């Protein structure tokens, strides 16, 4: 290496160090690393009390590093399907309240099929809107809008899936982001391959799935996950040069279908003995993990890792096509733990103890007030937020272990509609079709194999009453009964037998 080249590299390093130092010192940067359809056990980081089969089969070394530098949440929850989770995190509202209760895509069209017994309600199938008058959509001030008011540069990279095609909510730039890379209405990519132009035309699919704005990577032999990471790291560098704190919403399309092998890692899993599908899935997980490592390396390179919060989370459980996330029961869209319990890790230098772990539960709408508190911002003066900040958990303080959590899925897509309450150790599921209940004591039965409804009717009635009150308070929609046209009764209106 020539002396001139060495001097150039040194000067660039000094410039970035100065730029990092010049960022607003009272505002931490926030990186929200959000993965799609990744199950609780789809990682080499154990979130259960013991190492599981999947933990041994998958390889996510950068998640391991992040866990060693921060706090692991063993009971983090999301909605059971993507759009509800994404609208909840950006608004702080529970799906029962914002009514985006299933995945969105086409304006005015629901993915819910007909059901022989019930019909889905007229839910907000157009998703989140930037316009208060948009039909079948919810309008609410967003997290990036509020962070912008605090001086943050707000960066969106990857999957958006906030609003339907041809609505205001399909473009993250309308929802408070300064930058949008590759985000649009669709919740999955046409393809992960640049040689297929990230398009679905290779499988004769609709171009609505095509990932926008990445033309420069076409035919460059690059996987989508890697392309998004390169873009994200460039935007981090841009924000540092501008001297602004930033919020990076790094929202990967991975590991959502189509399941296409990442050629960088696929063969090792075949050699390990996994079948072709699981090897492809494992390779996508490792590619996602590499992205996490590359972003953490960029933070160090720019001298800002000590004042950047990194939060890792998934939007729901893994789909039924993937290996079951044992010991959890069920999968994506299900009311069981396999559908709603997700991996989550938080690194906050100087605040969160390294190699720490919490069994306190949190839910995805908690992201909204937590990030605002981290940024020193106030929650908006509205009573529509359901999320609760978990900064106190990150600081190692005691929290309310009896706080109720709620899920609401009044739709007929893939599984029958349901509502759930989790309070303390107890979880009650209300099945809308036949108005029956399931009661589980989660710490004793994480696999939800023993319905304790007959042995604990008093507890079931207590939880049904709380769940019913909440659904009524939020004016949650219920499906209608085909035979009568009447709404399915709320859980507190049904006799528990």
**If helices are DSSP runs of H or I spanning 4 or more residues, what is the number of helices?**
13
Evaluate the radius of gyration: 22 Å
Percentage of residues in helical conformation: 25-40%
Largest sheet geometry: 9 strands, mixed
Q: Tally the beta strands.
A: 17
Q: For the terminal residues, how far apart are their CA atoms?
A: 79 Å
Strand content: 15-25%
CATH architecture of the largest domain: 3-Layer(aba) Sandwich
Strand-and-helix sequence, N→C? Answer: HEHHEHHEEEHEEHEHHEHEEEHHEEEEHE
At the fold tier of CATH, the topology name of the largest domain is Alkaline Phosphatase, subunit A
- As residue ranges, the low-confidence spans are 6-16, 18-24
Instruction: Report the oligomer.
Output: single chain
Total domain count: 2
What is the CATH level 1 assignment of the largest domain?
Alpha Beta
Family: Belongs to the sulfatase family.
Cofactor: Ca(2+)
Keywords: Calcium, Hydrolase, Metal-binding, Signal
InterPro entries: Alkaline_phosphatase_core_sf (IPR017850), Sulfatase (IPR050738), Sulfatase_CS (IPR024607), Sulfatase_N (IPR000917)
């Amino acid at each position: 290496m020539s002396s001139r080249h060495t001097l150039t590299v040194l000067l660039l390093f000094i410039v970035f160090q100065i730029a990092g130092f010049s960022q607003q010192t009272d505002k931490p940067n926030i990186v929200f690393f959000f993965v799609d359809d990744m199950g609780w056990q789809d990682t080499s980081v154990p979130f259960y009390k013991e190492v599981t089969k999947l933990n041994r089969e998958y390889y996510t070394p950068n998640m391991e590093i992040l866990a060693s530098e921060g706090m692991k949440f063993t009971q983090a929850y999301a909605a059971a399907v993507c759009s509800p989770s994404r609208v909840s995190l950006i608004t702080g509202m529970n799906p029962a309240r914002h009514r985006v209760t299933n995945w969105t895509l086409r304006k005015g069209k629901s993915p819910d099929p007909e059901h022989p017994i019930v019909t889905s309600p007229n839910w907000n199938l157009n998703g989140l809107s930037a316009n208060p008058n948009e039909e079948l959509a919810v309008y609410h001030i967003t997290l990036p809008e509020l962070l912008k008011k605090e001086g943050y540069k707000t960066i969106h990279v990857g999957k958006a899936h906030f609003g339907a095609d041809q609505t205001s909510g399909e473009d993250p730039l309308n929802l408070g982001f300064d930058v949008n890379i590759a985000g649009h209405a669709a919740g999955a990519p046409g393809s992960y391959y640049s040689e297929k132009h990230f398009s679905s035309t290779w499988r004769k699919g609709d171009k609505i799935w095509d990932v926008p704005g990445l033309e420069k990577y076409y035919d460059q032999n690059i996987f989508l996950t890697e392309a998004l990471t390169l873009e994200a790291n460039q935007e981090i560098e841009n924000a540092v040069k501008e001297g602004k704190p930033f919020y990076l919403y790094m929202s990967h399309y991975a590991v959502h279908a189509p399941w296409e092998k990442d050629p960088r890692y696929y063969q090792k899993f075949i050699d390990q003995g996994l079948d072709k599908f699981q090897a492809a899935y494992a390779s996508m997980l490792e590619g996602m993990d590499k992205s996490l490592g590359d972003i953490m390396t960029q933070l160090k390179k720019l001298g800002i890792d000590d004042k950047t919060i990194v939060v890792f989370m998934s939007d729901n459980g893994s789909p039924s096509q993937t290996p079951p996330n044992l010991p959890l029961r069920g999968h994506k869209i299900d009311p069981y733990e396999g559908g709603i319990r997700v991996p989550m890790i938080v690194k906050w230098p100087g605040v969160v103890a390294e190699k720490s772990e919490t069994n306190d539960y949190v839910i995805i709408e908690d992201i909204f007030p937590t990030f605002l508190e981290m940024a020193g911002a106030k929650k908006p003066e509205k009573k529509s937020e359901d999320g609760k900040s978990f900064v106190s958990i990150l600081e190692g303080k005691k929290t309310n272990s009896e706080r109720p959590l709620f899920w609401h899925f009044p739709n007929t897509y893939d599984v029958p509609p349901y509502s759930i309450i989790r309070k303390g150790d107890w979880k009650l599921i209300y099945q809308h079709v036949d108005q029956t209940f399931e009661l589980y004591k989660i710490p004793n039965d994480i696999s939800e194999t023993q319905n304790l409804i007959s042995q604990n009717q008093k507890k079931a009635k207590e939880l049904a009453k709380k769940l019913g009150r909440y659904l009524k308070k939020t004016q949650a929609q219920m499906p209608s009964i085909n035979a009568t046209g009447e709404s399915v009764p709320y859980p507190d209106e049904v006799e528990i037998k």
